[in-house]
Fold this protein.
Amino acid sequence: MNRERKEDLSIYHWLKSLFSATPYINIVDGFPTTALTASTLPVISVDYRRMMAVHFEVGNKERLGNRIWYIDVFAKNKTQRDEIAYTILHALEESIPVYDYDESFTLDTPPLTRLGCLMIGDEVELEVIEIMPELVETLYFRERVTFTAEFSNKIN
């Protein structure tokens, strides 16, 4: 499995761990592909928007890379939306551990081998996304957390 996919899974499982005390929150890897209904809300989805890799040393094929991540929150009301988004926002003050998902693991127990971490960039953005009631059957409240992260094999 590529390291980038391990990063994807690490953020997904980081969110699962962050909201483990609230099992009614549905967390999905990628943008939701099924219709959101009142019974499925709240939903948190995570996906990356863009990946950039730049050569940082002449003659070396290694690249420095970072990714822009989106975490979308779909909720039943404004309070629920904000509470979930603020929890994510504050958790992004720390790096996110990246594990080796080539090892066997369960949803409750991450792999034992830690490859490094995703170092969160300087800017983390929180944006309310307005949903027009006439465009969706079920009115929901949405917010997006956007951040950049760079992989580091440093384990802190």
